[in-house]
Amino acid sequence: VNDKRIIYTKTSKLAVIPKSDKALMINLDGEYGGDAPMTFTNLHQHIEMFANLDAIPNEAVIGYEDEEESHYDAVTKGFIKEVEKLSQEDIDGDGKIGDEK
Fold first, then answer.
1. Which GO terms describe its molecular function (predicted)?
2. What are φ and ψ of residue 52, in 5° steps?
3. Are 79 and 73 in contact (CB under 8 A)?
4. Is the pLDDT of residue 88 over 80?
5. Is 90 exceeded by the pLDDT of residue 99?
6. How many whole angstroms separate alpha carbon 82 and alpha carbon 85?
7. What is the pLDDT of residues 26-47, one digit of tens each?
8. CB 25 within 8 A of CB 32
9. Cα(89)–Cα(30) distance, rounded to whole angstroms?
10. 3-state SS string over 29-87?
11. Are 37 and 16 in contact (CB under 8 A)?
């Protein structure tokens, strides 16, 4: 963005404080957001999404398991079971250590 009136930054917290008594209007995504001073805090991953999953292809949805992902999950579970045997601890919370019945 090449405009001296726009500040582009990546941060977790930003305080906007006017340098003079003149009102400093804040633009939030194209809408008037009020006058400074203001403090903005990035609430990382705090946007809740809703969707009609029936209208979205399965492979576009997180949690959709294809053959490769199923293999990966099986390998991961096998690894966890082996670590449980070595450590004698229930790592995955299934109430068992390794493959014990």
1. kinase activity
2. -85, 95
3. no
4. yes
5. no
6. 5
7. 998 889 999 999 999 998 888 8
8. yes
9. 54
10. CCEEEEECCEEEECCCCCCCCCCCHHHCCHHHCCCCCCHHHHHHHHHHHHHHHHHHHHH
11. yes
Beta bridge partners of 25: 35
| End-to-end Cα spacing for the chain | 61
Question: What's the residue count for the chain?
Answer: 101
pLDDT band at 18 (very low <50, low <70, confident <90, very high): very high
User: Which pLDDT score is estimated for 7?
Assistant: 80
Task: Note the pLDDT tens digit of each residue in 48-78.
Answer: 888 898 898 877 877 656 666 677 788 888 8
In whole angstroms, give the CA distance from residue 27 to residue 34: 8
Beta-strand relationship, 38-41 and 31-35: unpaired
CB contact at 8 A, 94 and 88: no
Q: Return the structure tokens found at 40.
A: 């903005």
Q: Are 64 and 58 within 8 A, CB to CB?
A: yes
